[in-house]
Amino acid sequence: MQLDLEVGNRSNLMLLASAATWKRLVLPRYQPARSFLQTKRLSPRQSVASVRASRSESDIQTGNLQTAPATPAADAEPPSSQPGRLFSNIDPSELTHRPGTVFASATLVAGTTVGAGILALPYSTQEAGFTASSAALTFAAVYNILTGLLIAEVSVNTMCQLGRGSTSIKTMAERTLGKAGANVTSASYIFLHYAMLSAYTARGGEIVGDWTHLPKAAMSIVFVGSLGLLCYKASPKLLDNFNSTLVIAILVCFGALLVSAGGNIEPTALSKANWSALPDTVPTLSLVCVYQNVVPVIASNLEGDIQKVRVAVCTGIAIPWVMFLAWDAAILGNLGNPHLQELMRSSGATDPLDLLTKSDPVVGPLIQFFSFAALTTSLIGFTLGLVDFVGDLLPIPSEKSRLYSYMASLLPPVFFGIAFPGAFFAALDVAGTYGVLLLFGVIPAAMAWSERYGETTLSRERVVGGGAPALLGIGGFAALVIGKELTQTVLNALPH
Protein backbone atom coordinates (compact mmCIF):
# COMPACT_ATOMS: atom_id res chain seq x y z
CA MET A 1 0.00 0.00 0.00
CA GLN A 2 1.26 3.38 -0.93
CA LEU A 3 1.04 6.23 1.54
CA ASP A 4 0.57 9.97 1.03
CA LEU A 5 0.49 10.02 -2.78
CA GLU A 6 -0.25 13.34 -4.45
CA VAL A 7 -2.55 11.52 -6.88
CA GLY A 8 -0.50 12.14 -9.96
CA ASN A 9 -3.25 11.52 -12.49
CA ARG A 10 -2.44 14.13 -15.07
CA SER A 11 -5.65 13.39 -16.95
CA ASN A 12 -7.71 15.04 -14.22
CA LEU A 13 -8.85 18.38 -15.59
CA MET A 14 -11.07 20.60 -13.55
CA LEU A 15 -14.27 21.09 -15.53
CA LEU A 16 -14.74 24.64 -14.37
CA ALA A 17 -11.35 26.27 -14.24
CA SER A 18 -7.60 26.25 -13.81
CA ALA A 19 -6.25 26.62 -10.27
CA ALA A 20 -6.25 30.41 -10.30
CA THR A 21 -9.71 30.68 -11.83
CA TRP A 22 -11.03 27.99 -9.50
CA LYS A 23 -10.05 30.00 -6.45
CA ARG A 24 -11.37 33.21 -8.01
CA LEU A 25 -14.74 31.69 -8.89
CA VAL A 26 -15.25 29.09 -6.19
CA LEU A 27 -13.94 30.87 -3.15
CA PRO A 28 -15.31 34.40 -2.88
CA ARG A 29 -14.24 35.73 0.47
CA TYR A 30 -16.48 34.77 3.40
CA GLN A 31 -18.44 32.31 1.24
CA PRO A 32 -18.04 28.54 1.75
CA ALA A 33 -16.65 26.75 -1.27
CA ARG A 34 -19.57 24.37 -1.46
CA SER A 35 -22.15 27.08 -2.16
CA PHE A 36 -20.93 27.93 -5.66
CA LEU A 37 -19.97 24.43 -6.65
CA GLN A 38 -23.42 23.10 -6.00
CA THR A 39 -25.60 25.88 -7.39
CA LYS A 40 -25.85 24.35 -10.83
CA ARG A 41 -25.28 20.73 -11.76
CA LEU A 42 -25.01 19.22 -15.22
CA SER A 43 -24.78 15.65 -16.31
CA PRO A 44 -21.34 14.57 -17.56
CA ARG A 45 -22.56 14.69 -21.17
CA GLN A 46 -24.10 18.14 -20.68
CA SER A 47 -21.00 19.38 -18.87
CA VAL A 48 -18.63 18.37 -21.65
CA ALA A 49 -21.03 19.62 -24.32
CA SER A 50 -21.28 23.00 -22.63
CA VAL A 51 -17.51 23.28 -22.48
CA ARG A 52 -17.19 22.39 -26.15
CA ALA A 53 -19.92 24.79 -27.17
CA SER A 54 -18.40 27.71 -25.31
CA ARG A 55 -14.81 27.19 -26.46
CA SER A 56 -13.05 27.58 -29.76
CA GLU A 57 -10.94 24.77 -31.23
CA SER A 58 -7.76 26.58 -30.21
CA ASP A 59 -8.99 26.91 -26.63
CA ILE A 60 -9.60 23.18 -26.38
CA GLN A 61 -6.24 22.32 -27.91
CA THR A 62 -4.39 24.59 -25.50
CA GLY A 63 -6.34 23.31 -22.49
CA ASN A 64 -8.04 26.69 -21.85
CA LEU A 65 -11.16 25.40 -20.14
CA GLN A 66 -11.89 28.45 -18.01
CA THR A 67 -15.48 29.50 -17.80
CA ALA A 68 -17.36 32.43 -16.37
CA PRO A 69 -19.11 32.04 -13.06
CA ALA A 70 -22.65 30.78 -13.21
CA THR A 71 -25.44 32.68 -11.53
CA PRO A 72 -27.30 30.59 -8.96
CA ALA A 73 -30.83 29.72 -9.95
CA ALA A 74 -33.53 31.44 -8.00
CA ASP A 75 -35.06 28.16 -6.94
CA ALA A 76 -31.75 26.45 -6.15
CA GLU A 77 -31.78 24.32 -3.05
CA PRO A 78 -29.52 25.19 -0.14
CA PRO A 79 -25.97 23.91 -0.63
CA SER A 80 -26.21 21.46 2.25
CA SER A 81 -29.14 19.67 0.58
CA GLN A 82 -27.36 19.10 -2.73
CA PRO A 83 -24.61 16.56 -2.18
CA GLY A 84 -22.63 15.51 -5.22
CA ARG A 85 -19.36 15.85 -7.04
CA LEU A 86 -17.36 19.07 -6.86
CA PHE A 87 -15.63 18.70 -10.21
CA SER A 88 -15.33 16.27 -13.09
CA ASN A 89 -12.40 14.10 -14.10
CA ILE A 90 -12.02 14.66 -17.84
CA ASP A 91 -10.06 12.61 -20.36
CA PRO A 92 -7.98 15.33 -22.09
CA SER A 93 -7.70 13.41 -25.35
CA GLU A 94 -11.44 12.97 -25.86
CA LEU A 95 -12.93 15.50 -23.43
CA THR A 96 -15.12 12.77 -21.99
CA HIS A 97 -16.10 12.29 -18.39
CA ARG A 98 -13.97 9.70 -16.57
CA PRO A 99 -15.36 9.38 -13.04
CA GLY A 100 -14.12 6.86 -10.52
CA THR A 101 -16.53 4.27 -9.17
CA VAL A 102 -17.53 3.46 -5.63
CA PHE A 103 -16.77 -0.21 -6.26
CA ALA A 104 -13.19 0.46 -7.39
CA SER A 105 -12.64 2.81 -4.45
CA ALA A 106 -14.03 0.27 -1.98
CA THR A 107 -11.73 -2.44 -3.32
CA LEU A 108 -8.80 -0.04 -3.01
CA VAL A 109 -9.65 0.46 0.67
CA ALA A 110 -10.05 -3.28 1.23
CA GLY A 111 -6.83 -4.14 -0.59
CA THR A 112 -4.90 -1.53 1.35
CA THR A 113 -6.25 -2.76 4.68
CA VAL A 114 -5.42 -6.43 4.15
CA GLY A 115 -1.65 -6.61 4.53
CA ALA A 116 1.09 -8.26 6.52
CA GLY A 117 -0.36 -6.85 9.75
CA ILE A 118 -2.81 -9.76 9.73
CA LEU A 119 0.12 -12.02 10.66
CA ALA A 120 0.41 -10.29 14.04
CA LEU A 121 -3.31 -10.44 14.83
CA PRO A 122 -3.44 -13.87 16.58
CA TYR A 123 -0.26 -13.12 18.54
CA SER A 124 -1.68 -9.83 19.79
CA THR A 125 -5.17 -11.10 20.64
CA GLN A 126 -4.45 -14.54 22.14
CA GLU A 127 -4.35 -13.22 25.73
CA ALA A 128 -7.61 -11.31 25.33
CA GLY A 129 -9.37 -14.22 23.65
CA PHE A 130 -11.63 -14.26 20.62
CA THR A 131 -14.74 -12.77 22.24
CA ALA A 132 -13.01 -9.74 23.73
CA SER A 133 -10.70 -9.20 20.76
CA SER A 134 -13.66 -9.32 18.35
CA ALA A 135 -15.23 -6.42 20.20
CA ALA A 136 -11.91 -4.57 20.12
CA LEU A 137 -11.46 -5.28 16.41
CA THR A 138 -14.93 -3.91 15.72
CA PHE A 139 -14.11 -0.77 17.69
CA ALA A 140 -10.83 -0.40 15.77
CA ALA A 141 -12.66 -0.70 12.45
CA VAL A 142 -15.22 1.95 13.42
CA TYR A 143 -12.50 4.23 14.79
CA ASN A 144 -10.50 3.97 11.59
CA ILE A 145 -13.60 4.68 9.53
CA LEU A 146 -14.11 7.91 11.48
CA THR A 147 -10.50 9.06 11.12
CA GLY A 148 -10.58 8.20 7.42
CA LEU A 149 -13.72 10.30 6.96
CA LEU A 150 -12.04 13.18 8.79
CA ILE A 151 -9.20 12.97 6.27
CA ALA A 152 -11.79 12.93 3.48
CA GLU A 153 -13.39 16.05 4.94
CA VAL A 154 -10.11 17.95 5.03
CA SER A 155 -9.11 16.59 1.62
CA VAL A 156 -12.24 17.87 -0.11
CA ASN A 157 -11.97 21.26 1.56
CA THR A 158 -8.29 21.49 0.62
CA MET A 159 -9.03 20.69 -3.03
CA CYS A 160 -11.67 23.42 -3.02
CA GLN A 161 -9.52 26.08 -1.38
CA LEU A 162 -6.37 25.35 -3.39
CA GLY A 163 -8.19 24.77 -6.65
CA ARG A 164 -6.75 21.31 -7.23
CA GLY A 165 -8.18 17.98 -8.27
CA SER A 166 -5.89 16.14 -5.86
CA THR A 167 -4.03 16.64 -2.62
CA SER A 168 -1.86 14.82 -0.08
CA ILE A 169 -1.84 14.39 3.67
CA LYS A 170 1.25 16.58 3.93
CA THR A 171 -0.44 19.36 1.94
CA MET A 172 -3.54 19.12 4.12
CA ALA A 173 -1.46 19.31 7.28
CA GLU A 174 0.45 22.35 6.05
CA ARG A 175 -2.79 24.11 5.12
CA THR A 176 -4.57 23.42 8.41
CA LEU A 177 -1.75 23.04 10.96
CA GLY A 178 0.98 25.18 9.42
CA LYS A 179 4.58 24.34 8.65
CA ALA A 180 5.15 22.72 12.04
CA GLY A 181 2.16 20.43 11.51
CA ALA A 182 3.44 19.46 8.07
CA ASN A 183 6.86 18.62 9.54
CA VAL A 184 5.31 16.43 12.24
CA THR A 185 3.20 14.70 9.60
CA SER A 186 6.24 14.06 7.40
CA ALA A 187 8.27 12.76 10.34
CA SER A 188 5.51 10.38 11.46
CA TYR A 189 5.06 9.22 7.87
CA ILE A 190 8.74 8.33 7.49
CA PHE A 191 8.84 6.75 10.95
CA LEU A 192 5.83 4.56 10.16
CA HIS A 193 7.38 3.35 6.92
CA TYR A 194 10.74 2.61 8.49
CA ALA A 195 9.11 0.67 11.33
CA MET A 196 6.94 -1.36 8.96
CA LEU A 197 9.79 -2.11 6.55
CA SER A 198 11.99 -3.15 9.48
CA ALA A 199 9.30 -5.58 10.65
CA TYR A 200 8.88 -7.02 7.16
CA THR A 201 12.65 -7.38 6.77
CA ALA A 202 12.98 -9.32 10.01
CA ARG A 203 10.02 -11.61 9.32
CA GLY A 204 10.93 -12.17 5.67
CA GLY A 205 14.46 -13.19 6.68
CA GLU A 206 13.03 -15.69 9.17
CA ILE A 207 10.77 -17.35 6.60
CA VAL A 208 13.38 -17.55 3.84
CA GLY A 209 15.95 -18.74 6.39
CA ASP A 210 13.63 -21.56 7.49
CA TRP A 211 13.13 -22.61 3.86
CA THR A 212 16.80 -22.51 2.88
CA HIS A 213 18.39 -23.39 6.25
CA LEU A 214 20.73 -20.43 5.72
CA PRO A 215 21.51 -17.58 8.17
CA LYS A 216 18.43 -15.44 8.67
CA ALA A 217 20.42 -12.19 8.63
CA ALA A 218 21.75 -13.01 5.17
CA MET A 219 18.28 -14.02 4.01
CA SER A 220 16.89 -10.68 5.21
CA ILE A 221 19.32 -8.96 2.84
CA VAL A 222 18.36 -11.32 0.01
CA PHE A 223 14.62 -10.85 0.67
CA VAL A 224 14.68 -7.05 0.73
CA GLY A 225 17.42 -6.71 -1.89
CA SER A 226 15.61 -8.83 -4.47
CA LEU A 227 12.30 -7.05 -3.98
CA GLY A 228 13.98 -3.64 -3.96
CA LEU A 229 15.73 -4.49 -7.23
CA LEU A 230 12.42 -5.63 -8.69
CA CYS A 231 10.77 -2.33 -7.75
CA TYR A 232 13.73 -0.36 -9.14
CA LYS A 233 14.11 -2.20 -12.46
CA ALA A 234 10.69 -3.58 -13.34
CA SER A 235 8.21 -1.68 -15.48
CA PRO A 236 4.99 -0.56 -13.78
CA LYS A 237 3.02 -3.12 -15.80
CA LEU A 238 5.31 -5.99 -14.78
CA LEU A 239 5.22 -4.91 -11.14
CA ASP A 240 1.42 -4.66 -11.21
CA ASN A 241 1.11 -8.12 -12.74
CA PHE A 242 3.50 -9.58 -10.17
CA ASN A 243 1.64 -7.95 -7.31
CA SER A 244 -1.78 -8.96 -8.67
CA THR A 245 -0.66 -12.58 -8.98
CA LEU A 246 0.48 -12.58 -5.36
CA VAL A 247 -2.81 -11.04 -4.22
CA ILE A 248 -4.75 -13.83 -5.95
CA ALA A 249 -2.45 -16.39 -4.33
CA ILE A 250 -3.04 -14.76 -0.93
CA LEU A 251 -6.82 -15.02 -1.31
CA VAL A 252 -6.66 -18.66 -2.41
CA CYS A 253 -4.28 -19.53 0.41
CA PHE A 254 -6.43 -17.63 2.91
CA GLY A 255 -9.48 -19.67 1.92
CA ALA A 256 -7.53 -22.91 2.17
CA LEU A 257 -6.26 -21.94 5.61
CA LEU A 258 -9.76 -21.23 6.89
CA VAL A 259 -11.00 -24.59 5.61
CA SER A 260 -8.04 -26.53 7.00
CA ALA A 261 -7.81 -24.81 10.37
CA GLY A 262 -11.56 -24.40 10.77
CA GLY A 263 -12.09 -28.13 11.11
CA ASN A 264 -10.00 -28.23 14.29
CA ILE A 265 -11.61 -25.32 16.13
CA GLU A 266 -12.49 -25.92 19.77
CA PRO A 267 -15.75 -23.98 20.44
CA THR A 268 -14.82 -23.45 24.08
CA ALA A 269 -11.64 -21.64 23.01
CA LEU A 270 -13.71 -19.01 21.19
CA SER A 271 -15.62 -18.08 24.35
CA LYS A 272 -12.51 -16.83 26.14
CA ALA A 273 -12.75 -13.15 27.10
CA ASN A 274 -10.00 -11.45 29.07
CA TRP A 275 -11.11 -7.84 28.88
CA SER A 276 -8.19 -6.58 30.96
CA ALA A 277 -5.80 -7.61 28.17
CA LEU A 278 -7.49 -5.43 25.54
CA PRO A 279 -5.33 -2.28 26.02
CA ASP A 280 -2.28 -4.21 24.85
CA THR A 281 -4.04 -5.07 21.58
CA VAL A 282 -4.79 -1.47 20.56
CA PRO A 283 -1.53 -0.71 18.67
CA THR A 284 -1.75 -3.88 16.57
CA LEU A 285 -5.47 -3.53 15.88
CA SER A 286 -4.93 0.09 14.82
CA LEU A 287 -2.23 -1.06 12.43
CA VAL A 288 -4.28 -3.95 11.05
CA CYS A 289 -7.18 -1.65 10.12
CA VAL A 290 -5.12 1.14 8.57
CA TYR A 291 -6.07 2.35 5.10
CA GLN A 292 -6.28 6.13 5.53
CA ASN A 293 -3.33 6.79 3.24
CA VAL A 294 -5.50 6.18 0.16
CA VAL A 295 -8.38 8.45 1.24
CA PRO A 296 -7.03 11.49 -0.69
CA VAL A 297 -6.78 9.27 -3.77
CA ILE A 298 -10.39 8.15 -3.33
CA ALA A 299 -11.62 11.71 -2.77
CA SER A 300 -9.99 12.72 -6.06
CA ASN A 301 -11.21 9.69 -8.02
CA LEU A 302 -14.77 10.21 -6.78
CA GLU A 303 -14.58 13.92 -7.69
CA GLY A 304 -15.05 15.18 -4.15
CA ASP A 305 -18.44 13.48 -3.77
CA ILE A 306 -18.59 13.00 -0.01
CA GLN A 307 -21.54 10.61 -0.11
CA LYS A 308 -19.67 8.26 -2.45
CA VAL A 309 -16.49 8.54 -0.40
CA ARG A 310 -18.42 7.60 2.74
CA VAL A 311 -19.93 4.51 1.08
CA ALA A 312 -16.57 3.45 -0.37
CA VAL A 313 -14.81 3.74 2.99
CA CYS A 314 -17.47 1.91 5.00
CA THR A 315 -17.83 -0.88 2.44
CA GLY A 316 -14.09 -1.20 1.96
CA ILE A 317 -13.47 -1.62 5.69
CA ALA A 318 -16.35 -4.09 6.17
CA ILE A 319 -14.70 -6.66 3.87
CA PRO A 320 -11.37 -6.97 5.74
CA TRP A 321 -13.20 -6.72 9.07
CA VAL A 322 -15.02 -9.96 8.25
CA MET A 323 -11.76 -11.53 7.03
CA PHE A 324 -9.94 -10.57 10.22
CA LEU A 325 -12.68 -12.01 12.43
CA ALA A 326 -12.65 -15.28 10.49
CA TRP A 327 -8.84 -15.44 10.60
CA ASP A 328 -8.70 -14.76 14.32
CA ALA A 329 -11.41 -17.36 15.02
CA ALA A 330 -9.63 -20.02 12.95
CA ILE A 331 -6.25 -19.51 14.64
CA LEU A 332 -7.35 -18.85 18.23
CA GLY A 333 -9.95 -21.61 18.03
CA ASN A 334 -7.17 -24.12 17.36
CA LEU A 335 -5.35 -23.11 20.53
CA GLY A 336 -7.98 -24.94 22.56
CA ASN A 337 -6.65 -28.24 21.23
CA PRO A 338 -5.03 -30.13 24.16
CA HIS A 339 -2.17 -31.30 21.93
CA LEU A 340 -1.33 -27.71 20.94
CA GLN A 341 -1.58 -26.52 24.53
CA GLU A 342 0.91 -29.15 25.63
CA LEU A 343 3.20 -28.28 22.71
CA MET A 344 3.01 -24.60 23.63
CA ARG A 345 4.01 -25.32 27.23
CA SER A 346 6.87 -27.63 26.29
CA SER A 347 8.31 -25.52 23.46
CA GLY A 348 7.74 -22.10 24.98
CA ALA A 349 6.22 -20.89 21.70
CA THR A 350 4.41 -17.55 21.91
CA ASP A 351 3.26 -17.07 18.31
CA PRO A 352 0.17 -19.14 17.42
CA LEU A 353 1.15 -19.13 13.73
CA ASP A 354 4.57 -20.59 14.50
CA LEU A 355 2.93 -23.20 16.70
CA LEU A 356 0.51 -24.30 13.97
CA THR A 357 3.29 -24.23 11.37
CA LYS A 358 5.35 -26.71 13.37
CA SER A 359 2.49 -28.95 14.47
CA ASP A 360 0.31 -29.38 11.38
CA PRO A 361 1.80 -30.76 8.13
CA VAL A 362 -1.07 -29.35 6.08
CA VAL A 363 -1.67 -25.98 7.72
CA GLY A 364 2.05 -25.28 8.25
CA PRO A 365 3.06 -24.85 4.58
CA LEU A 366 -0.10 -22.83 3.90
CA ILE A 367 0.73 -20.44 6.74
CA GLN A 368 4.31 -20.03 5.53
CA PHE A 369 3.33 -19.29 1.94
CA PHE A 370 0.50 -16.98 3.05
CA SER A 371 2.92 -15.11 5.32
CA PHE A 372 5.57 -14.82 2.62
CA ALA A 373 3.11 -13.54 0.00
CA ALA A 374 1.54 -11.04 2.42
CA LEU A 375 4.98 -9.75 3.45
CA THR A 376 6.04 -9.43 -0.19
CA THR A 377 3.03 -7.41 -1.33
CA SER A 378 3.18 -5.18 1.75
CA LEU A 379 6.92 -4.58 1.38
CA ILE A 380 6.48 -3.60 -2.28
CA GLY A 381 3.73 -1.14 -1.43
CA PHE A 382 5.56 0.46 1.47
CA THR A 383 8.78 0.65 -0.55
CA LEU A 384 7.13 2.45 -3.45
CA GLY A 385 5.35 4.85 -1.10
CA LEU A 386 8.50 5.76 0.82
CA VAL A 387 10.64 6.05 -2.32
CA ASP A 388 8.22 8.56 -3.82
CA PHE A 389 8.12 10.55 -0.60
CA VAL A 390 11.89 10.59 -0.10
CA GLY A 391 12.43 11.47 -3.76
CA ASP A 392 10.45 14.68 -3.28
CA LEU A 393 12.71 15.64 -0.36
CA LEU A 394 16.06 15.11 -2.10
CA PRO A 395 17.38 18.30 -3.78
CA ILE A 396 19.30 16.43 -6.48
CA PRO A 397 18.71 15.67 -10.17
CA SER A 398 15.98 13.15 -10.86
CA GLU A 399 18.36 10.65 -12.52
CA LYS A 400 20.30 10.21 -9.29
CA SER A 401 17.38 10.93 -7.00
CA ARG A 402 15.65 7.62 -7.76
CA LEU A 403 18.66 5.49 -6.85
CA TYR A 404 19.38 7.50 -3.72
CA SER A 405 15.71 7.33 -2.75
CA TYR A 406 15.79 3.54 -2.85
CA MET A 407 18.98 3.45 -0.81
CA ALA A 408 17.59 5.88 1.79
CA SER A 409 14.35 3.91 1.96
CA LEU A 410 15.69 0.36 2.26
CA LEU A 411 19.12 0.48 3.90
CA PRO A 412 17.97 1.63 7.39
CA PRO A 413 15.26 -1.07 7.68
CA VAL A 414 17.71 -3.73 6.47
CA PHE A 415 20.25 -2.72 9.11
CA PHE A 416 17.56 -2.77 11.80
CA GLY A 417 16.17 -6.10 10.63
CA ILE A 418 19.65 -7.67 10.76
CA ALA A 419 20.46 -6.17 14.16
CA PHE A 420 17.12 -7.28 15.65
CA PRO A 421 16.09 -10.43 13.75
CA GLY A 422 13.18 -11.26 16.07
CA ALA A 423 11.71 -7.77 16.16
CA PHE A 424 8.68 -8.37 13.93
CA PHE A 425 6.03 -7.99 16.63
CA ALA A 426 7.91 -5.28 18.51
CA ALA A 427 8.36 -3.22 15.33
CA LEU A 428 4.68 -3.56 14.45
CA ASP A 429 3.71 -2.53 17.97
CA VAL A 430 5.89 0.59 17.73
CA ALA A 431 4.53 1.36 14.26
CA GLY A 432 0.95 1.06 15.46
CA THR A 433 1.50 3.25 18.52
CA TYR A 434 3.77 6.05 17.35
CA GLY A 435 3.09 5.83 13.62
CA VAL A 436 -0.53 4.94 12.92
CA LEU A 437 -2.17 6.48 15.99
CA LEU A 438 -0.29 9.75 15.48
CA LEU A 439 -0.51 10.01 11.69
CA PHE A 440 -4.03 8.60 11.35
CA GLY A 441 -5.45 9.38 14.79
CA VAL A 442 -4.24 12.60 16.38
CA ILE A 443 -3.39 14.48 13.17
CA PRO A 444 -6.75 13.95 11.35
CA ALA A 445 -8.64 15.18 14.42
CA ALA A 446 -6.32 18.19 14.72
CA MET A 447 -6.68 19.03 11.02
CA ALA A 448 -10.47 18.78 11.20
CA TRP A 449 -10.50 20.95 14.33
CA SER A 450 -8.46 23.64 12.62
CA GLU A 451 -10.66 23.32 9.54
CA ARG A 452 -13.88 23.74 11.47
CA TYR A 453 -12.95 26.16 14.21
CA GLY A 454 -9.87 27.96 12.90
CA GLU A 455 -9.86 31.32 11.16
CA THR A 456 -7.43 30.59 8.33
CA THR A 457 -9.58 28.30 6.17
CA LEU A 458 -12.68 29.08 4.13
CA SER A 459 -14.23 25.68 3.41
CA ARG A 460 -16.65 24.10 5.83
CA GLU A 461 -17.57 20.64 4.48
CA ARG A 462 -18.27 18.37 7.46
CA VAL A 463 -18.38 14.61 7.12
CA VAL A 464 -18.20 13.33 10.71
CA GLY A 465 -20.88 14.56 13.09
CA GLY A 466 -20.65 15.10 16.82
CA GLY A 467 -18.99 18.50 16.74
CA ALA A 468 -16.12 19.35 19.06
CA PRO A 469 -16.76 16.48 21.53
CA ALA A 470 -16.37 13.93 18.73
CA LEU A 471 -13.08 15.44 17.56
CA LEU A 472 -11.79 15.58 21.12
CA GLY A 473 -12.76 11.97 21.67
CA ILE A 474 -11.13 10.74 18.45
CA GLY A 475 -7.91 12.66 18.93
CA GLY A 476 -7.88 12.18 22.68
CA PHE A 477 -8.16 8.40 22.44
CA ALA A 478 -5.12 8.17 20.16
CA ALA A 479 -3.16 10.59 22.34
CA LEU A 480 -4.08 8.59 25.45
CA VAL A 481 -2.78 5.33 23.93
CA ILE A 482 0.43 7.02 22.78
CA GLY A 483 0.94 8.53 26.24
CA LYS A 484 0.32 5.20 27.95
CA GLU A 485 2.79 3.34 25.73
CA LEU A 486 5.39 6.08 26.06
CA THR A 487 5.08 6.11 29.84
CA GLN A 488 5.37 2.32 29.99
CA THR A 489 8.45 2.40 27.76
CA VAL A 490 10.14 4.99 29.95
CA LEU A 491 9.32 3.08 33.15
CA ASN A 492 10.67 -0.16 31.69
CA ALA A 493 13.90 1.60 30.70
CA LEU A 494 14.53 2.91 34.21
CA PRO A 495 16.75 0.81 36.49
CA HIS A 496 14.78 -1.23 39.02
Automatic annotation (TrEMBL):
It is found in: Cell inner membrane. Residues 47-91 are annotated as: Disordered. GO terms for biological process: amino acid transmembrane transport. Keywords: Cell inner membrane, Cell membrane, Membrane, Transmembrane, Transmembrane helix, Transport. The chain crosses the membrane at residues 102-123, 135-156, 177-197, 217-234, 246-265, 285-302, 309-327, 366-391, 403-425, 431-450, 462-482. It is a multi-pass membrane protein. One of its GO terms (cellular component) is plasma membrane. Residues 67-79 have a biased composition (Low complexity). Its main location: membrane. PANTHER family: OS07G0662800 PROTEIN, TRYPTOPHAN OR TYROSINE TRANSPORTER PROTEIN. This is Tyrosine-specific transport protein. It comes from Apatococcus lobatus.
